[in-house]
Amino acid sequence: MKKLLALLAILALLTACSSNEQKPDATAAKPATKPSAEKQIKAGFIYVGPVGDAGWTWAHDQGRIAMEKADYVQPSTFIESVPEGAESARVINGLVQKGHNLIFTTSFGFMDATLDVAAKNKDVVFMHCSGYKTAENVGTYFGRMYEPRYLAGIVAGKMSKSNVIGYVAAFPIPEVIRGINAFTLGVRSVNPKSEVKVVWTQTWFDPGVERDAADSLLDVGADVLTMHQDAPATLQAAEARGAYVIGYNSDMRKFAPNAFLTAPVWNWAAVYTKTAEEVKNGTWKSQQIWWGMKENLVQLAPFSDKVPQDVQKLVNEKRDAIIAGTLKPFSGPLKDQSGKEVVAAGTSIDDGALLGMNWFVEGVQGTIPK
Amino acid sequence: MLEILLDATVRAGTPILFATLGAIINERAGIINLGIEGLMLIGALSGFAATFVSGNLLFGVIAAFIAAFLAGSIHALICVQLRGNQIVSGLALTMFGVGSTALFGRGMVGQTIDGFERHAVPLLSQLPVVGKAFFHQDWLIYFSFLLVVKIWFFFYHTRWGLALRTVGENPAAADACGIPVNLYRFLAIACGSGFVGIGGAYLSLASTPMWIENMSAGRGWIAVALVIFAGWSSVRALFGAYLFGGITAMQLRFQAMGTTISAHILQMLPYFFTIVVLVISTLRLQKGASQQPGNLGLPYDREDRK
Fold it and tell me: Which residues contact B62 (CB under 8 A, 6 or more apart)?
C-alpha cells in the first residue's frame, strides 16, 4: 500500500513539472499547405520562469508569438520554468530530438548547457540570451536596456518634487548596476540636485519583499519609484501611496493606472523575427547581438497622460539622438560615488567596460555589496 | 520610525502567521503537512479569482478557505484513511499546488482588483507606537489576531481541543476514550489547510493585490519551520511570524535610510535569527519541555494497537 502511494506521489511530482507544447492546430489561420521549397522554421524556446510572471518570460513569449506570424514559421514550442544548470541540457536536447531547427534559450544560466547540446547538433541553430560564449552554431543576443533606462531617468528627474527617487533592485550584477547608473545619469541630466536611493532585494521574484522594499523607499521620502524586478509589486506600492512609478520588462500600467509614467520594455520580436528569417534564407551567422533602441529591441513604453507635453518632447528628442548615435548615455565626464572622475570628458565607456560595470555613478545612494 | 517598522512587520508577518497557525492545527492532530507552500498558492489563486469575478473580498477569503480545505482533504485522505506516508503526500501536495495554480491561473495574470483597505479601530489606533501598527490595519489582520486567541482557547479551554491534542499525543488512548480519532484528524487537516489558504489569500488580496505564479515565494516553508520554534503554540507563532516579517522589513529599511552596514550582513539577519531561535528552542527541549505532539508523523491504525 505504502509503496503504491509513494509511486503515485512520484507520478504526481513528475506531471507537475510544467511542460507546455503547442500542438499544431488544424484550424489555425495559416494555410495547411505551405510552399515546400522554402525552409520551414520549427522553433523551440526554453524559459527560465513561467509565462505567467507578467515580466521577463512573458515578454519573451510575446516575441515568440510575434515571430509565429511569418508564414514560414511552424507553430513553435516553449518549455517554461526550466531550472538553470546541467538539468537544462536534457530539456534542450529534447527539443532537438523532436525536430526543432532553431532553439532560443532565454536565461544566462542556460549558457553551458546550450553550448553542450549545440556541439552535438551542428545542423540546429541556437541563440542564447545574455551570455558571452558563442560557437559556430550558437549566437547570443541581449539588449542595451540602459538606453531606455536613461530616458526613463529624465522623466523621473522631471517629475520628482522631493528630489528623492527610489530604485528597487534585484541583485548587484553588472546588468542591474548598468541600469541604475544610466537611470541616475538621466535623472541628474535634468535635475542635478536629486538622488537615487537603491534597495537590494536579493531576489528576482518575490512580490511581498519587492512591495516592502518599495514601501521602505517611500518611507524615506521618495516620490518617484522604479525597479529592476520581475513582479509588478513596486507599481502597486507607488499607486497605493500616491507616488509616481516607472515600470520595467513590459508595459505594466494596468497595475498602477494613476502612478504609472512609462517603462523601459523589451521587444524580443525584433531578434526572433530577424533570426527566423536569416535561418530560412541560409544567411544566419553566429554573432553576438547587443542591440539598442536603434534596432528596436528595447523601447520606452508610451507615456501616460501624467507626463507633461514638454517632458515628452524632451525625452523624444533624446531618444532620437540615441537612435542617431549622437547621444551616448555613458559619455564623460563621469564621476563615481566618491566624486572621483572615472571617465574623462570627450570619451565614453566601451562595451567591455559596460558589460562588467561594478561601480555606481555620482548621485546614487546605496552600496554595492562586495 | 519605530511605528513604520512595526507596521511593516505586521503586514509582512501576517501571511506567514496564518500559514503557521494552519500548520499547528495539523500537527497538533499528529499529522505533518509539508504541503503548506502549495496550499498557500491554492488559497492565493482561489481568493484572487473569486474576488475578481464577484468583486467581493469576503467571497475571496471564503473561496480561499474552501479551496484549501478541499486540497487539504486529499492530504487527509492519504494520511488518515489510507495511512500513507505523510512526508511524501505533503511534498506532492506542494507540487500539485504550484503546478495546478500555474495552469489554472493563466487567465488571472495581469488582472487587477481593489485589495483590502485599512480601517482604524477607534481609540486603540491612537495609542503611541503600537496604535498604527496593530489597530490601523485591514480586516484580515484583525481576523488573524482573533484566530490566534481562538486557537489558544480551543486547545486549552474546550473539550474538543483537549480531544484533538490527545489524538496527536496518543491516538490509541484517545480511541479507547471513545474519541473518533480519524474524524478529528481529518477535520484538523482540512480546517488547518483552510487557514493556510487564507494566508495565501492575504498575499493576493491585501499585500500585493494581484495573481502571479508562485507568488508565495517560499513563505510556506518558513511556516513549516516556524511551527517547531513556536513550540506548537498559536501565541508563540504570532511572535515567530512577526520576528521573520520584522527582520526582513528592518533590513530593507536600513538600506533605504542609507546605512553603511553591508547589505550582505543585513540580508543574513533572518537566517541568523532562525539559527539562534532554533538553538534556544532546542535547549528548551533538552530541559524536557518538548511541546511536540507524541505521535507526530505516525499513522494510526486501530488494528495495530499494542
Answer: B50
β-pairing verdict for B119-120 and B136-137 = antiparallel
Instruction: Map out the domains of chain A with their CATH numbers.
Output: 40-143+268-291 (3.40.50.2300), 146-263+301-365 (3.40.50.2300)
CA distance A160 to A154: 10
Q: Identify whether the C-beta of residue A72 lies closer than 8 Å to the C-beta of residue A41.
A: yes
Query: Nearest Cβ partner of A216 from B210, B213, B252?
Result: B252
Number of independent structural domains in chain B: 1
What's the rounded Cα separation, in Å, for the pair A325 and A347? 14
Residue A24, classified by CB atoms within 10 Å of its CB into exposed (0-12), middle (13-18) or buried (19+), is exposed
Whole-angstrom distance, CA of residue B108 vs CA of residue B119: 27
Contact between A76 and A68 under an 8 Å Cβ cutoff? The reply is yes
CA distance A354 to A326: 18
CB count in 10 Å sphere of residue A75 = 14
Residue B66 in any domain: the answer is: yes
In tens, the pLDDT along A257-314 reads: 999 999 999 999 999 999 999 999 999 999 999 999 999 999 999 999 999 999 999 9
Give the DSSP letter string of A42-90: -EEEE-SS-GGGSSHHHHHHHHHHHHTTSTTBPPPEEE-SPPSSTHHHH
Q: Compute the Cα dihedral for A173, A178, A184, A187 and give only its sign.
A: negative
Low pLDDT (below 50) residues in chain B: none
Output the nine-digit C-alpha cell for B194: 483552510
% residues pLDDT > 70 (chain A): 89
B213: nearest CB among A15, A52, A233: A52
Domain that holds residue B77: 2-301
* Sign of torsion over alpha carbons A218, A223, A228, A234: positive
Q: Is residue B306 part of a domain?
A: no
Residues of B with Cβ-Cβ distance to A236 under 8 angstroms = 208-210
Residues 187-226 of B with CB under 8 A from A: 203, 207-210, 212-215, 217-219
From the CB of residue A8, how many other CB atoms can be counted at a distance below 10 Å? 15
CB contact under 8 A, B106 and A9: no
Which residue do the cell numbers 506567514 mark? B16
**Mutation site, A4, A5, A47, A254, interface B, largest B CB count within 10 A:** A5
Relative to beta strand A102-105, strand A125-129 is: parallel
CATH of the domain at B111: 1.10.3470
